[in-house]
Amino acid sequence: MSGSHNSRDQGQAGARPGPDIAQTDPAALTEDQASAELARLADLLARANAAYHHDDAPEISDADYDALKRRNAAVEARFPALKRPDSPSDQIGAAPAEGFGKVRHAQRMLSLSNAFEDSDIVEFDARIRRYLNLAPLDPLPFTAEPKIDGLSLSLLYEGGELTRAATRGDGETGENVTANARTIADIPPRLEGAPDRLEVRGEVYMSHADFAALNIRQAEAGAKTFANPRNAAAGSLRQLDSAITRSRPLKFFAYAWGVTSAPLAETQIGAIERLAAFGFQVNPLTRLCDGPEEMLDQYRRIEDQRATLGYDIDGVVYKVNRLDLQERLGFRATTPRWAIAHKFAAELAWTRLEAIDIQVGRTGALSPVARLHPVTVGGVVVSNATLHNEDYIAGRDSRGEVIRGGKDIRVGDWAQVYRAGDVIPKIADIDLSRRPEEAVPFSFPTTCPECGSDAVREPGDAIRRCAGGLICPAQAVEKLKHFVSRGAFDIEGLGARQVEQFYRDGWIAEPADIFTLQTRYGSGMQQVKNREGWGEKSADNLFAAIEEKRDIPLRRLIFALGLRHVGEVVSADLARHYRSWAALLEAVDQAAPAALRHRAADAAEEAERATAQSEGRRARIKPVRDAIWAEAPDIPPAARAAWEDLVGIDGIGATVAASLTASFAQSSERASIDALAAQLRIAQEAGPQDSDSPVAGKTVVFTGKLEKMTRDEAKARAESLGAKVSGSVSAKTDILVAGPGAGAKAKKAADLGVTTMDEDSWLALIGAGPAG
User: Fold this and answer.
1) Averaged pLDDT score across all residues of the chain
2) Which residues are catalytically annotated?
């Protein structure tokens, strides 16, 4: 099975992004602005899809469209709670147009994730190796081929005969264009030696020469001309009259497949060769590459030929070559893990850096933002750029290594701005020859610009954070805004603007205050009713909405607290693991002493690394950490077990666990949390969904070296079957899966009478069978 090349495959129509939107950095948006912006982007992108797929008449460029799509992703990343049900991030293509029969794809036609920098490809390789538990030198070949800018098409062959052709549509349902596909010379009507049932996927496109000739004919006939070859190809394929399609010079490259009654090959490159043997055109620039270096070499070779190919491409697609590894890697929601599209370079522009502002986020992070003289980059007017942190401004990366040749960034500098995978612009370079004489190095503040509290930078952290907490207006208001956001309590009538008003007027200072508003100000709350824009009905509606939210799912409550490192996914993981608020509190409180020891070990480790580097020797990490733990024999075994269970939750880890325990251990923050919980009825997390599974509801621990799958795969599979995966053995453990090298956990399981099995027995139990 193989994924679609078209990582965009969206439309490009609607209004061009206005300067008021383009000049506002997502980091600078308020929650209300972000909500409005996401609504605007969803509307623009929906209209773009309709124009691109239904009318084949885009009105904005690819760069403009990509900018809108990336901006939507950036705003969602900044405000995850505001993500819309119709988010463009979750859409593939567009719904089929009226006039064509509908075809439901047996296997979804997915898009690809994008890469824009060489480092993204190195990370892509590393990410796959981590998932598959492959060492850096283990062979992991990839295919690399041009990313054709055309229209995705699925061709179904049964008994060797072409029986159906369908566009991708929205990925699940496409348009039946069988009659039109039969007119394309590159599409064989019959295959010899193919599997009895085979779905071939590829791209319909039009060459530059054919496109130019078509537009000349169209103009001479007084008919519509096309903006570019992609739209001409799409418009030609999606004709209700196949005779029109037959008159258009369409071509087809095959590069993928869907359902098949028999495997085509064992590798991606082998399958492509098989498709060529059936009579399909496959791209001659497809190459097998041994790792990122060869992949990037092929990328540059293809980029060098881009202008002379005679057809449009907008990047290079890399795929893991071995199909068994593709199967293991599987898919995310809308993209395969085993493939990525490396887009061609972003556009650059030079402009003056007029100021550096410091913004304080809801977690207290001090974020520097460059204010720029407006400049157009990639079709979008840019006036702000992220500066990341104080190290980045000084010319260093997160490891302290030199970037930009060590050039720092100063107000007044002539800066090169770029936009790539992120819609938020960045500074690529500084022109020292144009630096004003009066420009001085930027002095990053050590106090919060909002409240004057110390701005502290913890060891190992690249960010300074305000220590003011709720006394800091930036944090207090932002924490309350987050609390009422869509992914959290989502209280109707109490949005970001109302929170700001109520906080400014002294009506609410912490989340619990929201649920005592009516009690504290009387059933009528005359102050609310008398406020401009409010009346008795709107005030009563607000109280009713607040009352309704006293019943809250556990995962929403955890997310609403706005704890550092605890987003929606982590909140869901914690809720799924502990199931109830009481169990979560008990576990976090119990783990607190061990968390303190963990933080002490982290500090000792960092000190040892620094000392070892200065002395020119190798750091002794394990002995240092072991010594710190040994200094605390008074830590109860239950605390250590609770800590190990917490960090053992898939997707949690020590960083999240340390943040969680630290937040709950602070007296003022805990008092605020307890006051809130006292106002609520917290729903217990639902139990396992896969009730028919033999491991549903059971607590499973994996230990030792797993040989048939990685630990991530094992955990994901167990949880998908309704099991609860823990990192430590306790009396609550039902099954211990022990691979070679199992030590203390296996002994403890035996002492507790926990069922212990090897990996093959586990696979047999869950119905996977022993893996080869």
Assistant:
1) 82
2) 147
